[in-house]
């Protein structure tokens, strides 16, 4: 019995679709890290292509088929192959893949050396269009910031808060996620740890007090470090502080243009 292929029917509205596909698909992947060579993690995946105006719909099953064709664990080096397969199988000129996953680092407390794992959000956003590939890496780094104004006007202490810095980069050659994290953490009042003993807590608290930054300082610090790295062709840095004495958050963004 021949089954009707509704997706391939002609659409007369003459409206192309920029992106169509599947999202929120969970899939195991492997990521290279600087210490252990490979790190296994679980990514939330979005796969999309452009749809010409004359097609009624796309073939959703083919997105999953392409991903599954790489076996139970996808390596980051296979991303270009995934994109090119999508364009071929779905007769598209442009394909996009977006991976978001937790990335773990083992960190030692600053005084006692107590070891704990801390997780960061990482993203890969890749596009192939007419054979040309674009690749952006993003990390979301939690940090501590201490308010310079509060320190200047207060007789005792200063308010501080946890914040998230989101750094996205486009590079001439691959940049380690760990190096992106270090760049951001060096720009804040203090980095975060999962395990701190009392001597460590004292050191972290005093470090933050000695390095106060506004949210504006934070994005400028990160942007300045990006500007000095010749490997970084483009960047976007966002900082959001979860304010401890306000019922709103503080936010700033710098993006390199051109």
TrEMBL record:
Gene that this polypeptide is encoded by: folE2
Keywords: Hydrolase
The name this protein goes by in its record: GTP cyclohydrolase FolE2
Pathway: Cofactor biosynthesis; 7,8-dihydroneopterin triphosphate biosynthesis; 7,8-dihydroneopterin triphosphate from GTP: step 1/1
Known role: Converts GTP to 7,8-dihydroneopterin triphosphate.
EC annotation from Swiss-Prot or TrEMBL: 3.5.4.16
UniProt-annotated site: May be catalytically important, residues: 147
GO biological process, one term: tetrahydrofolate biosynthetic process
The keyword Glycosyltransferase is annotated on this UniProt entry: no
Source taxon at top rank: Bacteria
Lineage start: Bacteria, Pseudomonadati, Verrucomicrobiota, Terrimicrobiia, Terrimicrobiales
Catalysed transformations (reactions): GTP + H2O = 7,8-dihydroneopterin 3'-triphosphate + formate + H(+)
């Amino acid at each position: 019995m021949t089954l009707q292929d509704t997706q391939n029917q002609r659409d007369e509205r003459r409206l192309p679709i920029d992106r169509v596909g599947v999202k929120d698909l969970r899939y195991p992947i492997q990521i290279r890290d600087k210490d252990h060579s490979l790190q296994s993690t679980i990514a939330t995946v979005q796969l999309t292509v452009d749809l010409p105006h004359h097609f009624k719909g796309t073939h959703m099953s083919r997105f999953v088929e392409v991903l599954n064709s790489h076996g139970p664990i996808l390596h980051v080096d296979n991303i270009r192959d995934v994109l090119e397969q999508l364009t071929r199988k779905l007769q598209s000129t442009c394909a996009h893949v977006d991976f978001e996953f937790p990335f773990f680092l083992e960190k030692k407390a600053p005084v006692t050396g107590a070891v704990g794992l801390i997780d960061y959000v990482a993203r890969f956003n890749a596009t192939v269009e007419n054979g040309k590939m674009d690749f952006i890496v993003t990390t979301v780094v939690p940090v501590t910031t201490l308010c310079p104004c509060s320190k200047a006007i207060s007789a005792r202490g200063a308010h501080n808060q946890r914040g998230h810095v989101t750094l996205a980069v486009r590079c001439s050659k691959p940049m380690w996620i760990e190096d992106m994290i270090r760049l951001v953490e060096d720009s804040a009042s203090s980095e975060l740890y999962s395990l701190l003993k009392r001597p460590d807590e004292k050191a972290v608290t005093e470090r933050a007090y000695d390095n106060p930054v506004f949210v504006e300082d934070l994005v400028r610090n990160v942007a300045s470090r990006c500007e000095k790295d010749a490997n970084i062709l483009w960047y976007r840095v966002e900082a959001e502080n979860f304010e401890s004495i306000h019922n709103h958050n503080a936010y700033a963004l710098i993006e390199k243009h051109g």
